[in-house]
């Protein structure tokens, strides 16, 4: 079982974080450390999928712990928490290698989202590392993660759109609610395109502060700002001959939007601190859960950038609009989750499926997967309507 390390000197807060996250992430084991020094000892002796660390702690501060831990294990993923932080602290932590920064008092939904995104990013990095060293057979197995499951008219329409647009280099804007499967559409377009042998680089625009977005997207040269200890390639350059996926584009700051617009217009980027222009050959796919027309009217999104990004627009409907896919999705998730847990496959009887079809899925496919996982862990075999009533709070 993979482990998550919580480094927090306040035992009450540590206990609450562990209680909340263990409910959301039942497949992970949680380990606690009471300060940065104890955290370093834990990192040195064990492997962790994620580290959640306070910043202001005795003996060794969170910022120092972050730096030292990444020297020991550079692939560690960090989410930093502090009641004493400001934007300078946040930027410093992110520059030092943290994935995200959350201020106290902690917004639980924000924390859960950040932790899930951090784990997803880590898993994707590991998948890409596998692809770099393994053969095409393994690559096909990894791509199964991005299968689009279902037979509803809505899904068939999306699949037809993907087939039509994949072979072109046209920019695509994918819209729809959170958890509906926008990332799957982006990966399907890339996998069916002529760029499939190139990289697929993902950028969560909502997770990057405006102070860092230019460096993250376009790179920087050594010494261009405090913490720039070496040259760094940006995401656009890394995606050359492949695809860059700008997720949550509607949350990007106006300053960052202007810089992205220039990159799209000229197919060139300038690393921070350099007067050199780097030509890039990338396909751009963007996604958002926002109503972009309303964002434009409110002055929060540039209309010229919207038109650049939305040459083709694909709408991914919520699960409530394609409930006929629930049976196939449940069967798919049941097999995947059983394989992940190393347990015998559990089936769902017809009444259990009908009960699930009767719910309103505000969290969409992501919520359905979590429910299937809970039922596999707690339910009987086959899983019945009684199991659904007992273990699914709706």
From TrEMBL:
Q: Per its UniProt record, what CDD domains does this chain match?
A: AAA
The positions making up the signal sequence are none
Tell me one Pfam family matched here: Response_reg
Residue ranges occupied by any Response regulatory domain in the UniProt entry: 3-119
Keyword ATP-binding on this protein?
yes
Record keyword Transferase present: no
Q: Which residues form the Sigma-54 factor interaction domain?
A: 148-377
* Keyword set, alphabetical order: ATP-binding, Nucleotide-binding, Phosphoprotein
Highest taxon, organism lineage: Bacteria
Q: Which Gene3D superfamilies match?
A: 1.10.8.60, 3.40.50.2300, P-loop containing nucleotide triphosphate hydrolases
Question: 4-aspartylphosphate (modified residue): where?
Answer: 54
Can you say what this protein is called?
Sigma-54-dependent Fis family transcriptional regulator
